[in-house]
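User: Hi! Is it possible to get a structure for several chains at once, not just one? Here's what I have:
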Amino acid sequence: MVEFAMHNAWLVPLLPALSFVIIIFLTKPWPKLSGLVTVAGMVLACAVASFAAYGVFTNHAIAEKPLVYATRWFSMPGLHIDVGVQLDPTSAMMMFMVTLVASLIFIYATGYMKGDPGYSVFFSYLSLFGSSMLLLVISSNLLQMFVAWELVGLCSYLLIGFYTHKISAREAAKKAFVTCRVADFGLLLGILSLQIVFGTLNLTELAEKINHFEQYTTMGMMTLIAVLVFIGPIGKSGQFPLHVWLPDAMEGPTPVSALIHAATMVVAGVYLVGRMIFMFDKVPTAMELVAVTGAFTALFAASIAITQNEIKRILAYSTVSQLGYMMLALGVGSLTASMFHLWTHAFFKALMFLGAGSVLHALHHKADVWEMGGLLKKMPITGYTFMAGCLAIAGIPPFAGFWSKDEILLAVFDSGHYVLFTMAALTAFMTAFYMWRLFFLAFMGDEKPENHPHESPWNMTMPLVVLAILAAVGGLVGTPVNNMWAQWIYFGHPHEGHVNWLIMIGSVVLGFAGIYLAYTLYVADKTKARAHAMAEKYKFFHNLSYNKYYIDEIYLWFNHTIVDGSAKLFYLFDIYVVDGIIINGIAAFTRLSGEGLRITQTGRLQNYALVFFLGVLALAVALAFTETSAAFGLVTGGAK
Amino acid sequence: MLTLTVSLYHYLILSAILFGIGLFGVLAKRNAIAVLICIELMLNAININLLAFNKYMTPGDFIGQIFAIFVITVAAAEVGVGLAIIIAIYRNKLSVNLDDFDWLKW
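Assistant: Yes, the chains can be modeled jointly so their relative placement is included. Here is the combined structure:
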């Protein structure tokens, strides 16, 4: 069974794709059946993925040399594109994580979407989404990866804009798609450059060739390629300055948000950089760029999340911030820490989004955390599982987030980036604060009489419980005591596990400090007067944060003045230069010269005959005085 | 006593003079019939050329003479067609003055 799964890992993306086809063509009229097909497809994929992952994680040879099954997709002179499956610890881990989290989210969605008129269509999209992401994960070739990458973008567009009757959802879907497309263009250019320079897009071959890239190209070109490739993940993984689409993506149904933020879509960017780490590692400039982008995004998004009021928006900014963490870890060269955080983050972020969905379900889509309160009593399962997620993201041991965050902080500290380390530590404190602010406001305090919350049905709470358990223990695979994780997923040589007590204790203290601050402001102080007073006192910063640093407004302004302005300019250029001078000019010239030449058409045969005669005469003279011509000889002496 | 031998050049000069007269007539005459006659003149100038070249350059064979016969045949046909056109135009316009015929104008 393990052997079978390892050699047939292509089944993993295929099974959900099959559910997509089945739903579209067969079971669309029966919503319940469609939901079942989707869940079954993903659970089966999860089973195959688990066996394959088990096979990979019991065979040390695969860590050194990935298992690749590939076949020729198409071939033309100088260009051979393969399509295939690449199994190594990183892709096996991702495959397992994505199928597991996606299965749980799909089960949850069967409850959450109950009664929706587009139930079947929704589930078909979900299947396609999961399938695309899995295809991306197992790709052995960059072009194949890019195809999956775009498919993921398409599915996110369909799902974010699923509530087509909502203008905001449609706008958000467009925003997500366009923003990602902008970034994808960079990635596409990067992939093309790689093909041109190295003549292959297969990951294993690229890794080998880039290892001594000096034979193929210069450092400058390599830096350019790495930066171009990194632009893709900036968009997909919501890094500054292309993070704007991610918080809006919560306009979709909550399971979609959970899927986008935890298992699929946004981690694709981090995964791609992780996949290409062999290239980034050779280019110090690009590595610095990745690290600085990550650290800045982490801090930036965390500072926005502090003042947001909508429950899903807070979570969205926390995702942006955590993705920044993962990028930061990659930027300092620690694939181990980055993938570890990706793994733990998937569990607790899926948990929190699903929890938020459960809350919204109960409160009939009232999203403002200030209007919630006391939900812990009415919705104990949602409440306590959500608390597990909050503990995990705040970095409280032994929850999952603690181990991975600690790993990242340690990696950043060891690499000697002390400024980035400070930013990351500050982010850890802010993360704890805003997540617990959300928790305290929504679940603690006084109940609001106008709310009549009720616990969600079993198919929504079951995934919550499973994810809560995973969020609690999921990090134990990578504890410094027995770091199984680092022995498997690493770049270069296995990560030497060591404990830096200062950082470990420091991060726990920061986490508790954030929670304590949130407690004093939002629980101990019943009236929340101090929180409001602080917002009033630092009005400038509060506004800046609450309005997301006006990034959207800046983009809008840029769009309206620069883009529209230059469009206007080009319009005038088109009207007056292209149409006016070039096109109409040529027409006018033709017409006027026609008018002029018309005069020569007298209609008198004798004029024509004269011109004809003169022409013949001119020709004869020209021929006679051309030395090479036969006529020349005749005229000058050929005739006897 | 002045001896006069007729050489190729004499023929050529005669033919050139005839051709020039014909050409002038074609270009300058206003009467369509006269133009047709002038065309005949040009054709015959060419015939003289052909025969003279035949006689002085390739006395053995008759290519030039055969050519001349062809030219005469074609000229007869051409005059037939030309006269028919002129008669048709005359029936329309009651004129054979070429200045009245500018129908070919745009």
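Chain A has 29 helices and two strands. The mean pLDDT of chain A is 84.

User: Great, thank you!
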